[in-house]
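To whoever is on call:

I kicked off a structure prediction for a single chain this morning and the downstream step that reads the tokens threw a length-mismatch warning. I double-checked the sequence; it's 95 residues and nothing unusual in it as far as I can see. Pasting both halves so you can look.
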Amino acid sequence: MRVKLLVQTQEFQSWPATKERAASTSHNLVCVDMSQPADARMTESISYRLKDEEIPKYWDKAMDKIIEVNLRRIAHSKSGKASIIGEIVETTPAK
């Protein structure tokens, strides 16, 4: 499924190493669903976690743009926050 998302903000997070896990970071684009029809849109913000190869292309460059993502699945954090798993296939300026 392909979804259109308007990038509102971006978030950088980092976690220190623990006994069980290595240190890690994430670069997330925080988006609003732009699906049609409008009544089918998700009402909460949703994050798209950039892959390592996508960071140079989209970090600090995707603000206020619409990204189209081939959606593989929606993951939820322990706190219930939604994140899109997929690939960005296109970006366009917001109208």
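Update from on-call: the warning came from a stale cache, not from the record. Cleared it. Sanity check on the structure: The two ends are 23 Å apart (CA to CA).
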